[in-house]
Amino acid sequence: MSRLARSSPPFVYIAAKATGGRSLGVRQARSARALAEQLRRDRLILLRSWQLPAFLASERKLTLKDHAQLNDQLAQLVARGVPLVEALEVTEQTVRPAAQPIVAQIRERVGAGMGFAEACNSTGVFDTVTIAVYKGAERTGDLAGACKQLALNARRTLAVKGKAATLMIYPSIVLTIGVAVALVMVAWIVPKIGNALAQTGVPLPAYTKVMVAVGMWIRANALLLLLAAMCAAFAGVVWRKTLGVIALHGARHVPLLKDVLLAQESSRFFSVMAAMTRTAVPLADALGVAVHAVHHPDLRKQLTTLRTRLVEGGLLRRLIDEVTTWNLATRRLLIAAERAGDLESAFEGLADDMSAEVDRKSARMLAAFEPLLLVLLFAMIGSLLLSIMIPIMNASSQAF
Fold it and tell me: What is the domain-level CATH number for residue 75?
């Protein structure tokens, strides 16, 4: 948990609204006085508050939307010559309430003479890439440009994540409906029809008997299965990070999907490099930070090797050609940009190109997955239908 979270216990409060009425809620603040100040900014008057145990405090963090909003607002204000402390005060009013205490802490520490990058780092909610960009901006005096680039990177990452989420919606809905229909059929329809056929003297195939037995077992142990499902859901929430790592590792070996994941990782890397080079961070240092934003094992290994050899005196254009995870066109573009001394524009352009590539590869993968989903649905539901249809057809043939 961050230092900010430890210093801000939760409070249950009752406040009066400016328009009349009362408001009941829970917020984290350093003290009751700080809580009253927070509520005052939201046009609320604190009437009474109760401090809760510190262990109930949730971890403070900034979402990608918070990062985009914070940096976008700072870029606009600082570029117009607004002093940083005043810019942070205005920004504090524009971010969502949960992020306001973080911005307030940054503003207070900057006002006390602390550097902006150091103040952000002290909150414990900014990643190493963001802190490195802020430090570079303080050296070059281009904080507005750095904030603008970080806001662009955050919105680009949000767009890529949104595309990935949209990509998974269709298969998830289809599979959920398919599993639900199959469960209803195997638990109620198949046993009912199978027992009715058995009572009329129709011989049931072994497969139908198995499906009837499975359905009867599910109906007899419905509460046990429900409890097991709830336990599995709870375990999934508790170990979601571990399960996510395992799922991501498996996804990198799935045809088509692995290309989408590589394009996402490349887009993230080029976005970070564009932000770092804009603030005049040396290339080797920028690579050392940007590599931490890459989770693809092959790409990360090759980029780490590139940086190590670059520090040892290797020629960049030759080292780029050894990053075989990228296609030839990407490597040639980077080599041409390195010769022209315009890597910043190349990184920015490649970040946009990779985002567009995610769109194209996602659409291609979804088009390929649709027939597979139909086959899977037939395997689930069609097999259950066959367990009913086979004995019916056998009875009809015997009748004639």
Answer: 1.20.81.30
DSSP string, 16-71: EETTSSEEEEEEE-SSHHHHHHHHHHTTEEEEEEEEPPGGGPPPP---HHHHHHHH
Distance of CA 52 to the CA centre of its chain: 31
Measured distance between the N- and C-terminal CA atoms of the chain, rounded to whole angstroms: 76
> Which residues make beta-bridge pairs with 44?
17
Look at residues 384, 381, 383, 397 and name the one whose alpha carbon lies nearest to residue 202.
397
Q: How many CB atoms lie within 10 A of CB 206?
A: 7
Q: Quick one: 112 and 239 in the same domain?
A: no
Q: Which amino acid is at 227?
A: L
| 276 and 175 both lie in a single domain | yes
Residue type at position 138: E
What's the CA gap between 196 and 295, in Å, rounded?
A: 56
d(CA 285, CA 29): 37
Model confidence over 123-159: pLDDT tens digits? 888 888 888 888 888 888 888 888 888 888 888 778 7
- The answer, yes or no, to whether residue 3 has pLDDT greater than 50, is no
* Residue-wise pLDDT tens digits, 351-376: 888 888 887 887 787 777 778 888 88
